[in-house]
Write a structure and sequence with these properties.
Elements lengths: L8 H8 L1 E6 L24 E8 L2 E8 L10 H17 L3 E6 L9 H20 L4 E5 L7 H8 L3 E5 L9 H8 L9 H8 L1 H7 L4 E3 L3 H13 L1 H4 L5 H18 L5 H7 L13 H18 L1
Parallel strand pairs: 3-4, 4-5, 5-6, 6-7
Antiparallel strand pairs: 1-2, 2-3
């Protein structure tokens, strides 16, 4: 068993993707033009690896963000590489586009350039989906997936997470800085994972697949997501948008007054919500399946 959480972007690509060919390899040295002006360090790949390869014999285009460089934050070059990969996918029609996401969001060092880059990534991702190519996002790195990349991820067809993964718009430190420790204590690790972690996201339906922190488990999940892409497809239409808005409205009605995730789990039918954290992935998935079956019976 090899931990996805502890791996670098390049290690993840090597573990998950066969016959990988990198676009813009290290020798090209595509680095940020902004960071040197601030006396900040640069990376030879600007913190993201892009290329093509295979999973289960199917060609995919893949990008992997490096959390070890500025927390995987998106700057101008980083974003341009993602956009270029997505535009190439629209032209060459791989069987899926896979994003191994690990990012704190926009690279504040690059301010407007980073914000524009994230908006361009969103538009490019939706163009990939409009071209009939499923987009699969994998989240399992120690930095989580927050800010602009959190929004990008929710634009995908399928999100795969581990229990250790985190997904949200604002990171815990951002919430605490803006609203105080009384609103959210970023040092309370149990609270952080209850609120933004993979189990909570799976229960709410914000991710479609939950796997153990294991390279092989993530690889199998990507393969299943490609096989089931037609079942996981959400149309890019006004009707689909309205349906999702209705789902969010119901969620707010049901859970809007609850500030503790365990209270939400209890309201969903979990008899012992305090025990969720102790369940391994398989036991948790069995519990989730029973909750959803009950919901269907009473729905």
């Amino acid at each position: 068993m090899s931990s996805y959480l502890e791996a670098t972007a390049r290690q993840r690509v090597a573990a998950l993707i066969s016959d990988f060919k990198e676009f813009l390899p290290p020798a090209k040295e595509w680095t940020s033009p902004h960071l040197p002006q601030l006396n900040a360090p640069v990376s030879f790949d600007d913190g993201v690896v892009i290329g093509r390869g295979n999973i289960d014999g199917k060609q995919i285009y893949v990008a992997a963000q490096e959390g070890g460089f500025m927390g995987g934050a998106v700057g101008e070059v980083h974003g341009a590489k993602l956009v270029g990969l997505m535009r190439a996918a629209v032209i060459h029609k791989p069987q899926a586009l896979v994003l191994l996401a690990e990012s704190g969001g926009v690279r504040l060092h690059e301010a407007n350039a980073g914000l524009i880059a994230v908006s361009e990534v969103m538009r490019a991702l939706l163009a990939v989906r409009a071209a009939g190519i499923p987009v699969i996002v994998v989240i399992g790195g120690s930095n989580g997936c927050f800010g602009g990349m959190g929004i990008v991820s929710r634009c995908a067809n399928v999100i795969i997470m581990s229990e250790e993964a985190r997904l949200a718009m604002s990171g815990p430190e951002v919430i605490e800085t803006a609203n105080g420790v009384e609103e959210f204590d970023s040092r309370d690790r149990a609270l952080v994972w209850r609120t933004t972690g993979g189990k909570h996201r799976y229960l709410l339906g914000d991710c479609q697949m939950l796997v153990a922190d294991d390279d092989a488990a993530f690889q199998r999940a990507i393969g299943r997501a490609m096989q089931d892409s037609s079942q996981n497809e959400v149309a890019l239409s006004l009707a689909a948008l309205e349906e999702e808005q209705q789902m969010l409205t119901v969620r707010l009605q049901d859970f809007g007054g609850k500030t503790e995730p365990m209270d939400i789990w209890g309201a969903m039918g979990v008899e012992h919500p305090e025990g969720i954290a102790m369940l391994d992935t398989q036991a948790f998935l069995q519990l989730s399946a029973s909750i959803r079956q009950t919901e269907r019976q009473h729905g």
